[in-house]
Amino acid sequence: MKKQVSVVLSVLLFTVVLMGCTSTMTPTEFITGETKEYIIPEIGIESTAFLGETLIREGKTVTQDKINLYKSFGTQHFTTYHSAGNYTLIGKKGDSNIYQFDTMFHNGWTFIHPQLIEDANGIVYRKTLTGQPELKNTDYKKEQVIKDDSEAYEQSLIYTGAESNILKFTYREFVNDMARPAFTIDATYDYSKDNVIRFKGALLEVLTFDNQSITYKLISGFKN
């Protein structure tokens, strides 16, 4: 009797392991989205920055394909749980697109990222422990989302005032949304000698200034 129980438990455990392992798909081709760099303000346009404001800011955006699931499916800790919200396109496997939710949920065996699968015909399914139930068109919407991805690396130049003809600035580099002290630099420029500010590849023409604001034209950014 004990042996039979042991065998049954072993079979059940093996089945659960298989179910847990097949509840997500691993892409054979990863997709990270379209990245674009930006610069603020626009080059050649007269701009004004006040004390403590940024004169030049460079960063990047990423455009990603997503599926917005309107309602939740399943039960946490019992079945594969698909939360309502955005599922990001992370890659492809064969002719299928794989969309994945950022947050992990428990499926009764382990924590996984819920996934939605889109086949070559544009039909969308929920990836579950037991298969791929098809979603109704009214349950979701495909869309593109543009988000600021500058937390990885960002450069900025800040106006910190003036004393007579001496203009003061602070340059900062951000990595992972944290200002690194080694890359925060204070600089001064003598306006009576030159009205073009040059710093780290960036060029800007100073038009007017006082201790509260500065009006300028950006000639080129840090990356030229």
Q: What would you call the shape?
A: elongated
Q: What is the number of domains? A: 2
Low-pLDDT segments, ≥5 res: 5-21
Distance, first to last CA: 78 Å
Helix count? 1
What does this structure look like?
This protein has one helix and 17 strands. It has two domains: 2-30 and 74-132, no CATH class; 34-61 and 149-220, no CATH class. With 224 residues, the protein is mostly beta strands. It starts with a helix and ends with a strand. The protein is 9% helix and 53% strand. It has one helix spanning 2-21, and strands at residues 29-30, 34-40, 46-50, 54-69, 85-93, 96-101, 105-106, 111-112, 115-118, 124-127, 140-148, 154-163, 166-175, 178-190, 196-199, 202-209, 213-220. 19% of the residues are buried. β16 (202-209) and β17 form a beta hairpin.
Features:
1 helix, about 10% helix, single chain, about 220 residues, 11-stranded antiparallel sheet, mainly beta, 17 strands, 2 domains
Outline of the structure:
This protein has 224 residues and is mainly beta. It has one helix at 2-21; strands at 29-30, 34-40, 46-50, 54-69, 85-93, 96-101, 105-106, 111-112, 115-118, 124-127, 140-148, 154-163, 166-175, 178-190, 196-199, 202-209, 213-220. It is elongated, with a radius of gyration of 27 Å.
